[in-house]
Amino acid sequence: MIEERDPFFSFRIQEVIQETPDTKSFVLTPPAAGSVLCLSGQFLTFLFRNRKGEEVRRNYSVSSSPELGDPIRITVKRIPNGEFSRQLFDHAQPGDILKTIGASGFFTLPQGKEMPASLFFFAAGSGIAPVFSLIKTALHQDPLVKIVLIYSNPSESHTIFYQDLKSLQQAYPDRFQIEFLFSDAVRIRNRRLGIDLLEKLLLQYQVYQNPGTLFYLCGPFEYMRMITIVLRNQGFPAANIRKEIFEIHPPVQKTVPPDQDRHTIHLLLRDQEISFDTQYPETILQTAKRLHISLPYSCEAGQCGTCAATCLSGRVWMFKNEVLLEEEMAQGRVLTCTGFAVWGDVTIKYF
Ligand SMILES: Cc1cc2nc3c(=O)[nH]c(=O)nc-3n(C[C@H](O)[C@H](O)[C@H](O)COP(=O)(O)OP(=O)(O)OC[C@H]3O[C@@H](n4cnc5c(N)ncnc54)[C@H](O)[C@@H]3O)c2cc1C
Ligand code: FES
Fold first, then answer.
1. Is residue 45 lining ligand 2, measured as CB closer than 6 Å?
2. Structural domain count, the chain
3. Which ligand is nearest to the CA of 336?
4. Which end of the chain is flanked by fewer CB atoms within 10 Å, N or C?
Protein backbone atom coordinates (compact mmCIF):
# COMPACT_ATOMS: atom_id res chain seq x y z
CA MET A 1 0.00 0.00 0.00
CA ILE A 2 1.46 3.38 -0.97
CA GLU A 3 1.07 6.05 1.65
CA GLU A 4 -0.28 9.28 0.18
CA ARG A 5 1.95 12.27 0.86
CA ASP A 6 1.85 15.82 -0.43
CA PRO A 7 5.25 16.29 -2.08
CA PHE A 8 4.45 19.86 -3.23
CA PHE A 9 5.45 23.28 -1.96
CA SER A 10 3.52 26.53 -2.26
CA PHE A 11 5.50 29.66 -3.08
CA ARG A 12 3.94 33.09 -2.69
CA ILE A 13 4.83 35.79 -5.27
CA GLN A 14 6.42 38.59 -3.27
CA GLU A 15 7.35 40.97 -6.08
CA VAL A 16 6.96 41.23 -9.86
CA ILE A 17 9.72 43.02 -11.81
CA GLN A 18 9.39 44.01 -15.48
CA GLU A 19 12.82 43.19 -16.95
CA THR A 20 12.25 43.80 -20.68
CA PRO A 21 9.12 44.32 -22.83
CA ASP A 22 8.46 40.55 -22.84
CA THR A 23 10.12 39.31 -19.66
CA LYS A 24 9.24 39.55 -15.98
CA SER A 25 10.98 38.32 -12.86
CA PHE A 26 9.02 36.94 -9.90
CA VAL A 27 10.54 37.07 -6.44
CA LEU A 28 9.13 34.17 -4.44
CA THR A 29 8.67 33.57 -0.74
CA PRO A 30 9.12 29.90 0.14
CA PRO A 31 6.53 28.12 2.29
CA ALA A 32 8.83 28.04 5.35
CA ALA A 33 12.40 29.31 5.62
CA GLY A 34 14.91 26.78 4.36
CA SER A 35 12.33 24.16 3.37
CA VAL A 36 13.28 24.13 -0.34
CA LEU A 37 16.92 23.47 -1.07
CA CYS A 38 17.92 25.20 -4.28
CA LEU A 39 21.31 25.71 -5.88
CA SER A 40 22.27 28.50 -8.27
CA GLY A 41 21.49 27.41 -11.83
CA GLN A 42 18.83 24.88 -10.85
CA PHE A 43 15.18 25.23 -11.81
CA LEU A 44 11.85 24.85 -10.05
CA THR A 45 9.16 22.65 -11.55
CA PHE A 46 5.75 24.35 -11.28
CA LEU A 47 2.35 22.73 -11.52
CA PHE A 48 -0.43 24.34 -13.53
CA ARG A 49 -3.87 23.20 -14.73
CA ASN A 50 -4.70 23.34 -18.43
CA ARG A 51 -8.14 24.16 -19.82
CA LYS A 52 -9.19 20.52 -19.47
CA GLY A 53 -8.24 20.61 -15.77
CA GLU A 54 -5.23 18.34 -16.29
CA GLU A 55 -2.00 18.91 -14.40
CA VAL A 56 0.77 20.40 -16.57
CA ARG A 57 4.37 21.05 -15.49
CA ARG A 58 6.71 23.87 -16.49
CA ASN A 59 10.26 24.58 -15.33
CA TYR A 60 11.66 28.02 -14.55
CA SER A 61 15.31 28.49 -13.65
CA VAL A 62 16.33 30.32 -10.54
CA SER A 63 17.89 33.61 -11.66
CA SER A 64 19.04 34.71 -8.19
CA SER A 65 21.84 33.26 -6.06
CA PRO A 66 20.24 31.37 -3.15
CA GLU A 67 23.66 30.38 -1.72
CA LEU A 68 24.40 34.10 -1.23
CA GLY A 69 21.17 34.61 0.70
CA ASP A 70 19.18 36.08 -2.22
CA PRO A 71 15.43 35.39 -2.20
CA ILE A 72 14.40 32.87 -4.83
CA ARG A 73 13.59 34.61 -8.11
CA ILE A 74 12.49 33.21 -11.46
CA THR A 75 12.57 35.10 -14.77
CA VAL A 76 9.90 34.28 -17.32
CA LYS A 77 9.86 35.21 -20.99
CA ARG A 78 6.40 35.56 -22.52
CA ILE A 79 6.13 33.10 -25.43
CA PRO A 80 3.52 34.58 -27.85
CA ASN A 81 1.52 31.35 -28.17
CA GLY A 82 2.67 29.89 -24.85
CA GLU A 83 -0.04 28.81 -22.43
CA PHE A 84 1.63 29.24 -19.03
CA SER A 85 4.36 31.82 -19.71
CA ARG A 86 1.56 34.13 -20.90
CA GLN A 87 -0.51 33.30 -17.82
CA LEU A 88 2.41 34.25 -15.57
CA PHE A 89 3.47 37.33 -17.55
CA ASP A 90 -0.04 38.72 -18.13
CA HIS A 91 -1.80 37.87 -14.86
CA ALA A 92 0.47 36.79 -11.97
CA GLN A 93 0.48 39.33 -9.12
CA PRO A 94 2.14 39.71 -5.71
CA GLY A 95 0.29 37.47 -3.25
CA ASP A 96 -0.51 34.77 -5.82
CA ILE A 97 0.53 31.23 -4.92
CA LEU A 98 2.60 29.04 -7.26
CA LYS A 99 2.75 25.30 -6.62
CA THR A 100 6.07 23.52 -7.18
CA ILE A 101 7.61 20.10 -6.60
CA GLY A 102 10.88 21.84 -5.71
CA ALA A 103 14.25 22.41 -7.37
CA SER A 104 16.34 20.10 -9.51
CA GLY A 105 18.81 20.15 -12.38
CA PHE A 106 22.49 19.66 -13.12
CA PHE A 107 23.26 23.12 -14.56
CA THR A 108 25.21 24.01 -11.43
CA LEU A 109 28.71 25.03 -10.37
CA PRO A 110 31.04 22.08 -9.67
CA GLN A 111 29.72 20.27 -6.59
CA GLY A 112 32.22 18.72 -4.21
CA LYS A 113 35.07 19.61 -6.57
CA GLU A 114 37.43 22.53 -6.95
CA MET A 115 36.29 25.45 -9.08
CA PRO A 116 38.31 25.56 -12.35
CA ALA A 117 40.44 28.62 -13.13
CA SER A 118 37.93 29.84 -15.70
CA LEU A 119 34.26 29.57 -16.61
CA PHE A 120 32.91 30.45 -20.05
CA PHE A 121 29.18 31.15 -20.45
CA PHE A 122 27.04 31.37 -23.58
CA ALA A 123 23.48 32.68 -23.16
CA ALA A 124 20.79 33.79 -25.58
CA GLY A 125 17.61 35.60 -24.49
CA SER A 126 15.97 34.10 -21.41
CA GLY A 127 18.84 31.59 -21.27
CA ILE A 128 20.52 34.23 -19.10
CA ALA A 129 18.28 33.28 -16.14
CA PRO A 130 20.34 30.34 -14.80
CA VAL A 131 23.55 31.82 -16.25
CA PHE A 132 23.17 35.05 -14.27
CA SER A 133 22.61 33.02 -11.11
CA LEU A 134 25.77 30.97 -11.71
CA ILE A 135 27.96 33.96 -12.64
CA LYS A 136 26.98 36.00 -9.59
CA THR A 137 27.49 33.06 -7.23
CA ALA A 138 30.84 32.07 -8.73
CA LEU A 139 32.19 35.65 -8.62
CA HIS A 140 31.20 36.03 -4.97
CA GLN A 141 32.25 32.58 -3.81
CA ASP A 142 35.59 32.14 -5.55
CA PRO A 143 38.10 35.01 -5.42
CA LEU A 144 40.22 33.55 -8.25
CA VAL A 145 37.83 32.31 -10.93
CA LYS A 146 37.80 34.25 -14.22
CA ILE A 147 34.55 34.44 -16.13
CA VAL A 148 33.58 35.31 -19.71
CA LEU A 149 29.97 35.71 -20.85
CA ILE A 150 28.91 35.80 -24.51
CA TYR A 151 25.30 37.01 -24.48
CA SER A 152 23.06 37.27 -27.58
CA ASN A 153 19.86 39.31 -27.84
CA PRO A 154 17.72 41.08 -30.46
CA SER A 155 18.64 44.51 -29.01
CA GLU A 156 19.87 46.22 -25.86
CA SER A 157 16.30 46.92 -24.71
CA HIS A 158 15.48 43.19 -24.91
CA THR A 159 18.55 42.23 -22.88
CA ILE A 160 17.49 40.76 -19.54
CA PHE A 161 19.71 41.89 -16.60
CA TYR A 162 21.66 44.30 -18.84
CA GLN A 163 22.30 46.80 -16.02
CA ASP A 164 22.87 44.08 -13.39
CA LEU A 165 25.50 42.48 -15.61
CA LYS A 166 27.24 45.81 -16.21
CA SER A 167 27.27 46.41 -12.43
CA LEU A 168 28.81 42.98 -11.84
CA GLN A 169 31.41 43.74 -14.51
CA GLN A 170 32.28 47.01 -12.77
CA ALA A 171 32.53 45.24 -9.41
CA TYR A 172 34.87 42.55 -10.83
CA PRO A 173 36.70 44.26 -13.73
CA ASP A 174 39.67 41.85 -13.64
CA ARG A 175 37.64 38.67 -13.42
CA PHE A 176 34.46 39.19 -15.43
CA GLN A 177 34.20 40.09 -19.10
CA ILE A 178 31.08 40.30 -21.26
CA GLU A 179 30.53 40.34 -25.03
CA PHE A 180 27.00 41.58 -25.77
CA LEU A 181 25.81 40.56 -29.25
CA PHE A 182 22.76 42.41 -30.57
CA SER A 183 20.93 41.43 -33.77
CA ASP A 184 20.39 45.17 -34.47
CA ALA A 185 24.08 46.10 -34.00
CA VAL A 186 25.55 48.45 -36.60
CA ARG A 187 28.69 46.32 -36.92
CA ILE A 188 27.77 43.03 -38.60
CA ARG A 189 30.50 41.21 -36.62
CA ASN A 190 28.68 41.95 -33.37
CA ARG A 191 25.25 40.74 -34.47
CA ARG A 192 25.19 36.98 -34.40
CA LEU A 193 27.30 34.21 -32.93
CA GLY A 194 28.53 32.13 -35.86
CA ILE A 195 31.44 29.72 -36.12
CA ASP A 196 34.01 32.37 -37.15
CA LEU A 197 33.12 34.78 -34.37
CA LEU A 198 33.03 31.98 -31.82
CA GLU A 199 36.52 30.78 -32.80
CA LYS A 200 37.81 34.36 -32.60
CA LEU A 201 36.29 34.85 -29.14
CA LEU A 202 37.83 31.60 -27.87
CA LEU A 203 41.23 32.88 -29.02
CA GLN A 204 40.65 36.42 -27.75
CA TYR A 205 39.78 35.18 -24.24
CA GLN A 206 42.71 32.73 -24.22
CA VAL A 207 40.55 29.71 -23.48
CA TYR A 208 43.20 27.40 -24.95
CA GLN A 209 45.55 28.33 -22.10
CA ASN A 210 43.01 26.90 -19.63
CA PRO A 211 42.09 23.42 -20.88
CA GLY A 212 40.08 22.82 -17.68
CA THR A 213 37.65 25.66 -18.54
CA LEU A 214 34.03 24.73 -17.92
CA PHE A 215 31.50 25.89 -20.53
CA TYR A 216 27.85 26.59 -19.75
CA LEU A 217 25.35 26.99 -22.61
CA CYS A 218 21.72 28.10 -22.45
CA GLY A 219 19.77 29.21 -25.51
CA PRO A 220 17.92 27.84 -28.55
CA PHE A 221 18.71 24.29 -29.68
CA GLU A 222 20.59 25.24 -32.89
CA TYR A 223 22.65 27.87 -31.04
CA MET A 224 23.79 25.34 -28.44
CA ARG A 225 24.41 22.68 -31.08
CA MET A 226 26.69 25.00 -33.09
CA ILE A 227 28.67 25.98 -29.96
CA THR A 228 29.00 22.36 -28.82
CA ILE A 229 30.28 21.24 -32.24
CA VAL A 230 32.88 24.03 -32.33
CA LEU A 231 34.06 23.34 -28.76
CA ARG A 232 34.31 19.59 -29.40
CA ASN A 233 36.18 20.20 -32.68
CA GLN A 234 38.59 22.42 -30.77
CA GLY A 235 39.31 19.51 -28.42
CA PHE A 236 37.32 20.46 -25.33
CA PRO A 237 35.90 17.32 -23.65
CA ALA A 238 32.14 16.73 -23.52
CA ALA A 239 32.45 16.54 -19.70
CA ASN A 240 33.41 20.25 -19.68
CA ILE A 241 30.30 21.38 -21.58
CA ARG A 242 27.10 21.78 -19.58
CA LYS A 243 23.82 22.65 -21.34
CA GLU A 244 20.37 23.67 -20.16
CA ILE A 245 17.60 22.98 -22.69
CA PHE A 246 14.52 25.22 -22.35
CA GLU A 247 12.46 24.02 -25.28
CA ILE A 248 11.37 20.43 -24.80
CA HIS A 249 10.19 18.25 -27.66
CA PRO A 250 8.46 14.88 -27.21
CA PRO A 251 11.13 12.17 -27.44
CA VAL A 252 11.21 9.69 -30.31
CA GLN A 253 12.35 6.28 -29.15
CA LYS A 254 14.50 4.87 -31.98
CA THR A 255 16.18 2.07 -30.00
CA VAL A 256 14.72 -0.57 -27.68
CA PRO A 257 16.21 -1.90 -24.43
CA PRO A 258 18.53 -4.91 -24.85
CA ASP A 259 16.31 -6.87 -22.42
CA GLN A 260 12.52 -6.48 -22.43
CA ASP A 261 11.64 -8.86 -19.56
CA ARG A 262 9.59 -7.92 -16.50
CA HIS A 263 11.69 -6.71 -13.57
CA THR A 264 11.04 -5.34 -10.09
CA ILE A 265 11.92 -1.79 -9.09
CA HIS A 266 12.69 -1.13 -5.41
CA LEU A 267 12.29 2.58 -4.76
CA LEU A 268 13.71 4.46 -1.82
CA LEU A 269 11.71 7.66 -1.91
CA ARG A 270 11.78 10.18 0.91
CA ASP A 271 11.30 7.88 3.95
CA GLN A 272 9.30 5.24 2.05
CA GLU A 273 10.28 1.96 0.41
CA ILE A 274 8.09 1.01 -2.54
CA SER A 275 8.38 -1.98 -4.90
CA PHE A 276 6.62 -2.51 -8.21
CA ASP A 277 7.06 -4.51 -11.41
CA THR A 278 7.76 -2.83 -14.72
CA GLN A 279 8.25 -4.02 -18.27
CA TYR A 280 9.02 -2.56 -21.70
CA PRO A 281 7.38 -0.62 -23.40
CA GLU A 282 6.67 1.30 -20.16
CA THR A 283 9.54 3.30 -18.71
CA ILE A 284 10.09 3.21 -14.95
CA LEU A 285 8.39 6.61 -14.61
CA GLN A 286 5.42 5.60 -16.81
CA THR A 287 4.79 2.52 -14.64
CA ALA A 288 5.06 4.59 -11.46
CA LYS A 289 2.58 7.14 -12.82
CA ARG A 290 0.13 4.39 -13.79
CA LEU A 291 0.36 3.05 -10.23
CA HIS A 292 -0.16 6.59 -8.80
CA ILE A 293 3.29 6.62 -7.21
CA SER A 294 4.27 10.26 -7.04
CA LEU A 295 7.82 10.58 -8.42
CA PRO A 296 9.50 13.84 -9.41
CA TYR A 297 9.40 14.55 -13.14
CA SER A 298 8.83 17.33 -15.62
CA CYS A 299 9.79 17.06 -19.31
CA GLU A 300 9.42 13.25 -19.66
CA ALA A 301 11.89 13.60 -22.53
CA GLY A 302 15.32 12.95 -20.99
CA GLN A 303 16.18 16.65 -21.23
CA CYS A 304 15.73 18.36 -17.87
CA GLY A 305 16.94 16.00 -15.11
CA THR A 306 13.97 16.43 -12.74
CA CYS A 307 13.42 12.65 -12.66
CA ALA A 308 17.07 11.82 -11.92
CA ALA A 309 17.68 9.23 -9.21
CA THR A 310 20.62 7.08 -8.14
CA CYS A 311 20.73 3.43 -9.12
CA LEU A 312 22.05 1.52 -6.08
CA SER A 313 21.87 -1.96 -7.64
CA GLY A 314 20.96 -3.45 -11.01
CA ARG A 315 21.05 -1.68 -14.38
CA VAL A 316 18.92 1.03 -15.97
CA TRP A 317 19.09 1.50 -19.75
CA MET A 318 18.01 4.93 -21.07
CA PHE A 319 16.83 5.56 -24.62
CA LYS A 320 17.54 9.27 -24.31
CA ASN A 321 19.75 11.33 -22.02
CA GLU A 322 20.63 14.91 -22.85
CA VAL A 323 21.33 15.99 -19.31
CA LEU A 324 23.55 13.58 -17.38
CA LEU A 325 27.28 13.65 -18.04
CA GLU A 326 29.42 10.49 -18.15
CA GLU A 327 30.80 11.15 -14.67
CA GLU A 328 27.28 11.43 -13.22
CA MET A 329 26.23 8.18 -14.88
CA ALA A 330 29.39 6.55 -13.51
CA GLN A 331 28.12 7.57 -10.05
CA GLY A 332 24.86 5.72 -10.76
CA ARG A 333 22.66 8.66 -11.76
CA VAL A 334 19.82 7.60 -14.05
CA LEU A 335 16.71 9.17 -15.62
CA THR A 336 13.50 7.31 -14.86
CA CYS A 337 11.50 9.03 -17.63
CA THR A 338 13.52 7.34 -20.38
CA GLY A 339 14.88 4.45 -18.31
CA PHE A 340 14.06 0.74 -18.30
CA ALA A 341 15.30 -1.91 -15.86
CA VAL A 342 17.47 -4.39 -17.76
CA TRP A 343 19.18 -7.68 -16.81
CA GLY A 344 17.40 -7.99 -13.45
CA ASP A 345 15.80 -6.08 -10.60
CA VAL A 346 16.83 -2.53 -9.77
CA THR A 347 17.04 -0.46 -6.59
CA ILE A 348 16.89 3.30 -7.05
CA LYS A 349 17.03 6.07 -4.51
CA TYR A 350 15.82 9.67 -4.60
CA PHE A 351 17.62 12.20 -2.45
C1 LIG B 1 15.07 23.07 -17.42
C2 LIG B 1 14.23 24.20 -17.96
C3 LIG B 1 14.38 25.48 -17.47
C4 LIG B 1 13.64 26.54 -17.98
N5 LIG B 1 13.83 27.80 -17.50
C6 LIG B 1 13.15 28.83 -18.04
C7 LIG B 1 13.37 30.17 -17.59
O8 LIG B 1 14.18 30.42 -16.68
N9 LIG B 1 12.67 31.18 -18.17
C10 LIG B 1 11.78 30.94 -19.19
O11 LIG B 1 11.16 31.89 -19.67
N12 LIG B 1 11.55 29.68 -19.64
C13 LIG B 1 12.21 28.64 -19.08
N14 LIG B 1 11.95 27.36 -19.52
C15 LIG B 1 10.88 27.15 -20.51
C16 LIG B 1 9.53 27.01 -19.78
O17 LIG B 1 9.54 25.86 -18.96
C18 LIG B 1 8.35 26.86 -20.74
O19 LIG B 1 8.61 25.82 -21.62
C20 LIG B 1 8.08 28.14 -21.51
O21 LIG B 1 7.76 29.19 -20.61
C22 LIG B 1 6.90 27.94 -22.48
O23 LIG B 1 5.81 27.48 -21.75
P24 LIG B 1 4.33 27.82 -22.24
O25 LIG B 1 3.38 27.01 -21.43
O26 LIG B 1 4.12 29.29 -22.24
O27 LIG B 1 4.37 27.38 -23.75
P28 LIG B 1 3.68 26.09 -24.40
O29 LIG B 1 2.21 26.32 -24.42
O30 LIG B 1 4.23 24.87 -23.76
O31 LIG B 1 4.30 26.14 -25.86
C32 LIG B 1 3.82 27.03 -26.85
C33 LIG B 1 4.79 27.09 -28.01
O34 LIG B 1 6.04 27.67 -27.62
C35 LIG B 1 7.14 26.85 -27.93
N36 LIG B 1 8.11 26.99 -26.83
C37 LIG B 1 8.08 26.35 -25.63
N38 LIG B 1 9.12 26.77 -24.87
C39 LIG B 1 9.79 27.70 -25.59
C40 LIG B 1 10.95 28.48 -25.34
N41 LIG B 1 11.62 28.40 -24.18
N42 LIG B 1 11.35 29.34 -26.32
C43 LIG B 1 10.67 29.43 -27.48
N44 LIG B 1 9.57 28.70 -27.78
C45 LIG B 1 9.14 27.84 -26.85
C46 LIG B 1 6.57 25.45 -28.01
O47 LIG B 1 7.33 24.63 -28.87
C48 LIG B 1 5.17 25.71 -28.58
O49 LIG B 1 5.22 25.85 -29.97
C50 LIG B 1 12.69 26.31 -19.01
C51 LIG B 1 12.52 25.00 -19.49
C52 LIG B 1 13.27 23.97 -18.98
C53 LIG B 1 13.05 22.59 -19.51
S1 FES C 1 11.61 14.34 -16.49
FE2 FES C 1 13.01 15.59 -17.57
S3 FES C 1 14.73 14.26 -17.84
FE4 FES C 1 13.22 12.98 -16.96
1. no
2. 3
3. 2
4. N
